[in-house]
Design goal:
The structure is a single chain. The chain has no helices and 11 strands. By secondary structure, it is mostly beta strands. The mean pLDDT is 97. Strands 2, 4, 5, 6, 9, 10 and 11 form a 7-stranded mixed sheet that branches. Strands 1-3-8-7 form a 4-stranded antiparallel sheet, with no helix packed on it.
Length: 123
């Protein structure tokens, strides 16, 4: 049974930090690109960050570059998103998603999704 369980969301003031975690099970985490995707009210889903399974190279949306850091621990089947210098516009539900061997920005190509964790940044 595949599971992606996010944790670490919450309410934080602007300028603060949060660290999201996503614990994965039931699939080959060590051979999967991993993604963080967010959905804010009234907006489309946005790919926030992605990390490869091989060399752990990472990519970021321009909106979070320099503030967010994605990382993974293949031994623990867990992917993280460190979010610093948070802004009110970062308020969203953050989802962890798993892809295949190759990176993709097409959400339809992601194999598995978590339930999401709410992040709220107050001004």
């Amino acid at each position: 049974q595949v599971q992606l369980v996010e944790s670490g969301g919450g309410l934080v003031q602007a300028g603060g930090s949060l660290r999201l975690s996503c614990a994965a099970s039931g699939f080959m985490f060590g051979r999967s690109w991993m993604y963080w995707v967010r959905l804010a009210p009234g907006k489309e889903r946005e790919l926030v960050a992605a990390i490869s399974w091989s060399d752990q190279s990472a990519r970021y949306a321009d909106s979070v570059k320099g503030r967010f850091t994605i990382s993974r621990d293949n031994a623990k089947n867990t992917v993280y998103l460190q979010m610093d210098s948070l802004k009110p516009e970062d308020t969203a539900v953050y989802y962890c998603a798993a892809g295949g061997l190759w990176s993709s920005s097409d959400f339809n190509e992601y194999d598995y999704w978590g339930q999401g964790t709410q992040v709220t940044v107050s001004s």
